[in-house]
């Protein structure tokens, strides 16, 4: 999974995550794993997979009967619908449009070798890149538009001395 864009910004280089998923897992389970792997906490947003043939896959009950025509239910549609090497898209939050390019691996992995277990749902096991905040916030209490606050002194002097290098005014 590569995060292509969101909140009106195209990302480059694109942050990405590799997930292990079984063919028996549902698209709804994959959506949950992608959202968690990309650091989202407000998960109460519409989302949609779009397959290469244009088919939409989503949780139909979230749309309240207003899902786009031809959309299939992600709660019951399994990943076995996908083929090795196939690419498809995933959009989380239909307002901020966090768009992902998804590519099915050409080869299956050994989940025990990669993850240490066979997970009961899709799980991330590799990744790269800095993830943007879901709402553009840069610190606790930021509204996404405020000027950057002034750093409180040099180094880590504002922290309690729990770790040996914390509470020091210089750098480690």
CATH class of the largest domain: Alpha Beta
Low-pLDDT segments: none
- Give the overall pLDDT as a whole number: 91
- β-strand percent reads 15-25%
Q: Structurally, how many domains make up the residues? A: 2
**What is the number of helical segments per DSSP (H or I, 4+ residues)?**
2
Q: What's the gyration radius in Å?
A: 20 Å
Question: What is the number of E strands?
Answer: 9
CATH-assigned fold name of the largest domain: Structural Genomics Hypothetical 15.5 Kd Protein In mrcA-pckA Intergenic Region, Chain A
Strand order of the largest sheet: 2-1-8-7-4-5-6
CATH homologous superfamily designation of the largest domain: MM3350-like
What is the H/E string? EEEHEEEEEHE
Give an overview of the whole structure.
With 172 residues, the protein is mainly beta. It has 2 domains: 2-128, MM3350-like (Structural Genomics Hypothetical 15.5 Kd Protein In mrcA-pckA Intergenic Region, Chain A), CATH 3.10.290.30; 144-172, no CATH class. Helix content is 9%, strand content 23%. The protein has helices at residues 27-37, 111-115, and strands at residues 2-6, 9-10, 16-20, 47-50, 56-58, 72-73, 87-92, 98-103, 123-128. The strands form 2 sheets. It has a 7-stranded mixed beta sheet with strand order 2-1-8-7-4-5-6, covered by helices on one side. The longest helix has 11 residues, at 27-37. The protein is globular, with a radius of gyration of 20 Å. The model has no long low-confidence stretch (mean pLDDT 91).
């Amino acid at each position: 999974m590569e995060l292509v864009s969101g909140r009106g910004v195209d990302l480059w280089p694109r942050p990405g995550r590799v997930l292990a998923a079984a063919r028996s897992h549902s698209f709804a389970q994959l959506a949950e794993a992608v959202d968690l792997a990309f650091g989202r906490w407000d998960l109460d947003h519409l989302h949609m997979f779009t397959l290469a043939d244009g088919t939409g896959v989503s949780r139909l009950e979230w749309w309240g009967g207003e899902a786009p025509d031809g959309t299939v239910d992600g709660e019951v549609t399994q990943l076995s619908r996908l083929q090795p090497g196939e690419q498809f898209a995933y959009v989380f939050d239909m307002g901020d449009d966090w768009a992902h390019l998804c590519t099915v691996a050409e080869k299956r992995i050994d989940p025990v070798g990669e993850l240490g277990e066979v997970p009961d749902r899709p799980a991330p096991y590799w990744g790269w890149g800095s993830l943007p905040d879901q709402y553009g916030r840069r610190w606790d209490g930021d509204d996404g538009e405020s000027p950057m606050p002034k750093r409180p002194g040099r180094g880590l002097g504002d922290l309690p001395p729990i770790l040996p290098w914390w509470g020091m005014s210089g750098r480690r």
